[in-house]
Amino acid sequence: MDFNGLFSNFGELTTTGLTQGAIYALVALGYTLVYGVLRLINFAHSEVFIAGAFAAIWTWNGFGLDQNSQVSGVGSILFYLLVAMIVAAIASAGTATVIERVAYRPLRKRNAPPLAFLITAIGASIAISEAFGIWTRRLPEGAPSLVSSKPLFHLFGVPIDSVQLLTIGAALLMMVLLDLFINRSRTGRGIRAVAQDANTAALMGVNKDRIILMVFITGGSMAGVAGLLYDVRIQTLTYSVGFLLGLKAFTAAVLGGIGNLRGALIGGLLLGVVENYAAGLFGSQWKDFAAFAVLVVLLMFRPTGLLGESLGRARA
Predict the structure, then answer these.
(1) Would you place residue 33 in the very low, low, confident or very high pLDDT band (cuts 50, 70, 90)?
(2) Which of 241, 247, 240, 65 is closest to 142 using CA atoms?
(3) CA-CA-CA-CA torsion sign (30, 32, 38, 43)
(4) Beta bridge partners of 70
(5) What is the 3-state secondary structure (H, E, C) of 214-281?
(6) Predicted confidence (pLDDT) per residue in 162-188, tens digit
(7) Is the pTM of this model over 0.85?
(8) What is the domain partition of the chain in residue ranges?
(9) CATH architecture of the region 3-139+155-301
């Protein structure tokens, strides 16, 4: 164990952990939304994330940008980021819609057992992942360097760059907007009603199918933004990257309290920091192990996660 390495790089490990954790948190929001309403673990959500990530890169390619491109000028950078974010959110939301319509809705109509949903989710995940693998010939796709990784300033001696600010800031902003949407909008009230008691909500005039579709679209949009941020941060994307990231995002959702939106954010940020600390202490090869080990330990003592409040009981 390298305590010197951990303490000497504590600040940088924290900031990079929060940055990666912000991406986990955005993807985790989709898991927790679907589970909160349907009590379903949507394992195909990792491919919803991949759809947005690829859509962002292909959007930049459409503007003539590739992994070797350098973009200057704040206006140009904001334009490329905004357009790619919109396209990524639409692509992920569209993918989530197809999954809900084709894979899950027919099962709901037939009152299929939970195991059928689980198997279908895994099958859909593998099918979509392989489709992207075939389309990309299993080769990595590169993203242009839109945001500089040079330090902007130092906070308590820790360098903070534009990528970290963009990733963490975007995640917090999207979380705030989602929280307002769920707790303040009419559709959000419908989501909370269906999450609490779907049959009673239907008797009160809530269209259950429309609400469920909105849940998938909302969660998919969050995953699309996460895909864009992943491209900006990592700048390399392969078709299979969603599997491990999706598992970690699911872990973050469970860590914070599955079905709890704010718990998903806390769980994602915490998971990113913990795995970075483990990498600094034990070595990078222990990073993934630590991410899942902390989940097992937490669930032994608090099975409902850190916050544990269900979506249906969220405060208005």
Answers:
(1) very high
(2) 65
(3) positive
(4) 145
(5) HHHHHHHHHHHHHHHHHHHHHCEECCCHHHHHHHHHHHHHHHHCCCCHHHHHHHHHHHHHHHHHHHHH
(6) 999 999 999 999 999 999 999 899 999
(7) yes
(8) 3-139+155-301
(9) Orthogonal Bundle (1.10)
